[in-house]
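User: Design a sequence. Structure:
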């Protein structure tokens, strides 16, 4: 006999797989009080906000302390995929543009130094 089975009038009655009846009127039980979509009333929300303000959990957050934890946290914004390739290409193009700008400035200076 299963643990959930019961006995009624000498016969075994199985309750396995039987769901208890749910109250379909749960939304109607909040008559007179507004209820948010997540089930919290404005009063409960305000009370929870007060509690959180007194706890101030953000002051106790210190972040990662080990080198491994810090390296993991440093990768939080990493998106991966083609973005990495695009970033590498952008860096290469920017380097080439800087070199070209420097070369152009050197040429301009040399032209200005020559006697006319």
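Assistant: Done.
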């Amino acid at each position: 006999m299963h643990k959930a089975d019961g006995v009624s009038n000498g016969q075994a009655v199985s309750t396995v797989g039987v769901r208890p009846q749910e109250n379909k009127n749960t939304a109607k039980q909040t008559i007179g009080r507004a209820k948010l979509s997540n089930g919290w009333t404005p009063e409960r929300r305000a009370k929870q906000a007060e509690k959180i303000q007194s706890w101030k959990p953000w002051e106790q957050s210190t972040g990662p302390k080990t080198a491994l934890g810090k390296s993991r946290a440093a990768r939080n914004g990493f998106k991966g995929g083609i973005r990495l390739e695009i970033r590498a290409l952008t860096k290469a193009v920017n380097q080439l543009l800087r070199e070209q700008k420097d070369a152009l400035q050197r040429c301009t200076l040399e032209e200005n130094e020559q006697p006319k």
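The chain has a mean pLDDT of 79. The longest strand covers residues 6-8.
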